[in-house]
Amino acid sequence: MSRRLLFAAPAAAVMAAATAAYAHHGWSSYDADNPMRPTAAVVDSHWGSPHGSIVIEVEGQRWDVVLAPVSRMSARGLAEADIAVGQTVTVHAYPHRDGTRELRAERIIADGKTVELR
Fold first, then answer.
1. Structural domain harbouring 106
2. Is residue 95 part of a domain?
3. Domain for residue 23, yes or no?
4. DSSP string for 59-81
């Protein structure tokens, strides 16, 4: 293996990881000027890395809701059972700017408690 390749490969890996992280956490792609506060039943739930997520049904349309990392939700008192399928939640969230039905949640009200996610 050439010396150039030996040094270029790790640099390329770092750049690729940084690009993926930036794209994944591009919070500017959500519209903070138009917050939403839907209350709806959870129709799908994911409790895992890199963050939790739920799908809620609002007026016949399904919305993907991006939550916080599991460690943060747990530390702030939100349990996996609180966002299980069939639970009713209220999310304070920002819609995606591109018009897809995706929300970035700032806080969630579940099982009678309000949990800050950011």
1. 31-116
2. yes
3. no
4. TTEEEEEE---HHHHHHTT--GG
Residue 43 lies in a domain: yes
User: What is residue 19's predicted lDDT score, i.e. its pLDDT?
Assistant: 40
CB 103 within 8 A of CB 90: no
User: How many distinct structural domains can be found in the chain?
Assistant: 1
Q: Give me the torsion for CA of 89, 44, 63, 108, rounded to 10°.
A: 30
Query: Which candidate, 47, 85, 89, places its Cα nearest to that of 68?
Result: 47
Reduce the DSSP state of residue 2 to 3 states and report it.
Answer: coil
Q: Taking the model in full, what pTM does it have?
A: 0.78
Asked if residue 69 is part of any domain, the answer here is: yes
Q: How many CB atoms lie within 10 A of CB 96?
A: 17
Residue 27 banded pLDDT, cuts 50, 70, 90:
confident
